[in-house]
Design a protein that fits this description.
71% helix; mainly alpha
Length: 111
């Protein structure tokens, strides 16, 4: 009695393994002007949150922890959005502008 395995039942590459993302430079080039404007309008609090978030994302990405980097990116954007709205409410911006900005940012953070 032989227990030899056939080559057709050998496990292949996992289809759930994420492939390397080849467009990081293009995505960064598109996002940097937007982040710079948000940091300039939101002030030092938003700039600090974006800077710390970028460092955490870079650290997790360099350690090959892709899921953590992805989660950190979304968490950084959500926290920066909250800080941006807080900065708008503390400024002399008119209430319709603050409410319109909040309504526009909620779907963006909901992803």
């Amino acid at each position: 009695m032989s227990f030899a395995t056939s080559s057709s039942s050998a496990p292949g590459p996992s289809r759930f393994c994420p492939a390397p993302f080849a467009y990081n430079g293009r995505v960064a080039a598109a996002l940097l002007p937007c982040l710079a404007i948000a940091a300039a309008i939101g002030g030092s609090m938003v700039a600090a949150i974006l800077l710390v978030g970028a460092m955490v994302i870079y650290l997790m990405d360099s350690l090959q922890y892709r899921e953590g980097a992805f989660t950190s990116a979304w968490a950084t954007l959500a926290i920066a959005t909250g800080a941006f709205l807080f900065a708008l409410t503390e400024s002399d911006a008119p209430l319709p502008l603050v409410l319109g900005t909040a309504a526009a940012m909620v779907p963006a953070c909901a992803g």
